[in-house]
Amino acid sequence: MAAFDIKTLPNSLNGQVALVTGASRGIGRAIAIKLAELGANVVVNYNGSAAAAAEVVAAIKALGNGAQAVAIQADVSSVADADRLVAETVKAFGRLDVLVNNAGVFRGGLTDQLPLDDYHKLVGINIHGVYYTTRAAIPAIADGGAIINISSGASKIAIPGFPNAAYMATKGFVDSFTRGVAAELSPRKIRVNTVSPGATMSDMMAATSEQVMEQIVQMSFFKRLGTPEDIAEAVAFLAVPRSGAWFTGQNLHSSGGVTFAL
């Protein structure tokens, strides 16, 4: 067997194409810009925030490194939209190398009190959205590419006073699905991994009570919330062929130490 030389793998994303779902704001926005900084052409997926998505596209083009971007509207909880999203990505840039399943929603509440509409929304985007987009991307993604699913530390930890069992369950699906698809795509050398953010400053956290937020901050070894850029750096590590070369089926917890023992 010939020796493997990791230095033969690219240390950037130059010439590659990345599709980031839910990329118009927050963590998705930071991921899209970071991948573009590494040289990727980026598809900025959004559902309803056209103006915000256009701003992300403008920010990528303003980097001045030649990275291009387009915004594509699609509701990933729809099979037809997920299929169209991947098809339009390939039409726009001619290929697909990196898929980041970032689109997700949060709905919290006690299990016997959570409105069923909220439960169905969680399942539709957090589970079906990841499944449908991955399903559509598998035939299109280049051998040696990467799929990165955004889960949550919440799939591992329940916090008293912050009921979210249904949300936890949807992220547990993401964790398991990642491992299964990693095995399926290993013959094509496609790396499939999860990034699980800890508590990260986002729209969800902004709506959290000060008491719960402080409890979460104190759980972190660094006594702070994460930032979208923290998560984007973890995604970039897995997306780049050289740094991510020996990772597949893994769950990288970017959580400030909160989930280190899990």
TrEMBL record:
Protein name: Ketoreductase domain-containing protein
Ranges for domain Ketoreductase: 16-204
Family: Belongs to the short-chain dehydrogenases/reductases (SDR) family.
Keywords assigned by UniProt, alphabetized: Oxidoreductase
UniProt xrefs under SMART domains: PKS_KR
A Pfam family: adh_short_C2
Native organism: Polyrhizophydium stewartii
